[in-house]
Amino acid sequence: MPDTRAKALAYLRDGKVLISYALGAGDDRKPRDVLAYVEGYRSTHLVRLTAGRWGCSCQETGCAHVAAVQLVTGHQSAAARQPAAVPAEAVR
Ligand SMILES: [Zn+2]
Q1: pLDDT attached to residue 89
Q2: CB count, 10 Å around CB of 88?
Q3: CA of 33 relative to ligand 1 center, distance in Å
Q4: How many helices (H) and strands (E) does the chain have?
Q5: Nearest to 71, CA basis, from 92, 51, 47, 91
Q6: What spacing in Å lies between the alpha carbon of 64 and ligand 1's midpoint?
Q7: Less CB within 10 Å around the terminal CB: N or C of the chain?
Q8: Where are the domains of the chain?
Q9: pLDDT in tens, 18-55
Q10: What pLDDT, on a 0 to 100 scale, did the predictor assign at position 1?
Q11: 30: which DSSP letter?
Q12: Is the pLDDT of residue 79 over 90?
């Protein structure tokens, strides 16, 4: 959902995401317990990851608040990421 991703990136760009804690990283370096705050347009939303489930105080499924926190904590799947730019001088 590109619109959600664009909103998530905007939250990050504008410094609206505050990670309170991100604990319990396993071998994949992804934290198992996350608490974060995302400053929305009308109110600040609470985003949590507990027991493998993401939740947000806005109650919407697949909201941009969760997406933003997933991006910072490494939970966004690689497939959803934009392809990395290839350096022009990668090959001499
Ligand atoms: Zn939300």
Answers
A1: 64
A2: 6
A3: 17
A4: 2, 4
A5: 47
A6: 6
A7: C
A8: 2-80
A9: 999 999 887 888 999 999 999 998 899 999 999 999 99
A10: 57
A11: -
A12: no
